[in-house]
Request: fold
Amino acid sequence: MESACGHCGTGVRTTVCDVLNTSDPIPGPTAAAKSERAVYRGERYEIDPARRRVVLDDHELDLGARAFDLLVALVESRHRVMTKRELLAVVWPGSVVEENALHAQVSLLRKKLGRHVVATVTGRGYRFVDRLTRGDGAGPAPHNGLPTPVTRFVGREQALGQCLGLLDRRAPLTITGMGGAGKTRLAIEIARARHAQGATAWFADLSGVGVGDRVVAAVAAAVGARERADEPLLDTLSRHFSAEAGVLVLDNCEHVTEAVAQAVRVWSTLHGTLQIVATSRQPLRVPGEQIYALAALTLPASREPDDVLRAESVQLFADRASLHDPQFDVVAAGAGDVADICERLDGIPLAIELAAARTRLLTVRQLSERLDARLRLLVGGTSDVARQQTLRASMQWSYELLDASEQKCFRELAVFVGGCTLDSARVVLGAADDYEALEALTSLYDKSLIVVERNGDALPRYTMLQIVREFANEALEGAPDSRATDRHLAHYVGLAEQLVPRAQPALDGSTLGRLRREEANFRVAMARCERVEGGTRLALRLAGSLWPYWLATSQLALGEAFTTQALGIAAAPAEAGDEARARTLLGLGNVVFYRGRYAEALSIAQEALARARATGDQATAGFALKLLAGAHHALGQPEAALTHYRDTLAVAVAIGDAALQSAAQNNLAEVHRGLGDLAEAEAAYRLAIEIGQAARTANVAMVMCNLARLRLMQGEARDAVLALLDAQTMAMLTSYRSAGDQVIDIAAALASRSGRHAAAACFNGASLARMSESGSRREPLDEAFIEPWVAQSRAALGEAAFAAEHDRGLALDYEAAMAEVGDFLRRHIADERAEL
Reply:
């Protein structure tokens, strides 16, 4: 950014990070405001801001507009240091001016009023230091030692209102959050609001305080309280604060929390009306402390332009980008790219400010394409404090405040992608038990370095924002003695085997949900198998466990890549046991089968079956037989399919695998349906449903879909609707995505059968979109089922109308398509009841 944020006071700084956001540009004083301004008197001169005049020894001085504006700014903020950037923004608003111009105006004031009136504070700015009295008889003006923001307050209006409400309770308020969250700017706005109501406002920036015993002195210097020989400085400040209603901002307390807490304990019990606002990356832990955890700015709910523009993060990006290009427009620049930038920066204000500054030289598309290197790209802030000029420096400041054990925990949490549960954290961090792991996580949470995600009944997950994880991962790479990556790999291989037992790989809804939440960790674990000793075996165990997950969630392309990667790592068969290899081959064969490569699936199934039988792995052999039968059926060999499905059923009964029994009965029914033996097919479907429901397997939804097809073939539309509605409900409750895809496909046939051809065209388009997304193809039997229904609706609507509805379906995502199908099925039942 070219403009600065303007933090000042003792130990003062200007930060892009925390001074983000004032709701309006800083205006010049209105006529009403000018008329209320005091007249200030020095020993020989009088300053009248309202009339814009300075009188020295009864003679009016001609200072010029710039020098006069500079003088008034210094006088009205005389209780603190004003940075050069602040003064440049006040005296030359909206202009780019060299600092030499400011030096010249300061020199003019010293020449006219005396060299002693304006002090230079090396490295920080200027301060008006001459003694003044007010000339309106009203006594001392309410103190406003607040930094003057030079950018708009964007996106924190709700937070401001909430904090003001908390402050009314008179208990200390601590605003917590990671570096760059906007804590300081929010605190300043809180104090400005209170000052506008007549309260005195004091601002003490503690970032430059090196040791805790200097905290009280730094506050005293910031608020203009002078030390007295006859009383402790803490008592002097207590008297100072008790004298008038006021709000005290204690900024950047995280490195001196204990000393700040001691002072706050004293000042929060004063009988006056002092309100205390602290900003810190961790709580102060004082009695009655109110903690406001400052969340990230909101992100776009979708890529629709209205949703993008409504997001707080986008509003901030647009506002800061317009500082460099007044014509900047989000939609014209690329709303999707801006949304992507804000999302990948986690809505962190500092990151967004720094990214917006890059629009001076890059388009938003170029900026988005380079965000993989966030810590290198997002530099160049205009802060007076080095650690706020880059994201890396901000992270480094937080990291250095941790003790050695906290730093180790912070580094090692970077091995997780997408967060972790408490149990996973315990294992990977090498903690003795859950309590030790919880203590470590709590410490990092209190310091705003991790966040806790809660999702219904699911276990809480402990995550890092992307920027934080990038820094932690760099720190981990610099700690070669860490065993966290090895523990992570071993843990997630074991977790996959635990969640997907090879004897029963049909998944229930809760298991699917857990696997989905851990998917990113499984993928990074597979990548690590290539770099560790014993990775061959681990890769096959991982891939051999997870293949049912890829099928259930309709992620066939990803599943094929995952299993192929494992087999590539284990290229030398002698290095791995045949059991793990057989299960991985079984997974690959299933994936390629549902992608429509039946001959390849047949060959893989034969190899998997031979390996499983050689090791006595009956469960894998049973599922390999099922795959072998399915491939024969798809290749037009129903008799061979029936033989192998019966063999599958025999194995399932022998080992007591209810999921495999249900699946075998369902597949036997499919062959009978293809042969036209509808009664035998229905009996087998019913038995598959009964066994599956008793075993609580999620693939009952798939059997319901096949039963719905059968009912339509039998002309029983109402029964087909009921079966499909049951399947749709189960698919949604269990997150069984592949069953949901089938529901959408069959709904197109049912709509055509009911004469609702527009709905049929839409559902057909949505079904094709799902297949394209998952990389799947209909099996030949299902293709033969749907084709005449689609042709019927195409003929009824005409090509143009059919194409329009079909395209609408193509544009629906999975959730939207399932919602429309559910509405259609319920309306169908309601219409039938109305007719009765």
About this structure: The CA atoms of residues 190 and 441 lie 31 Å apart.
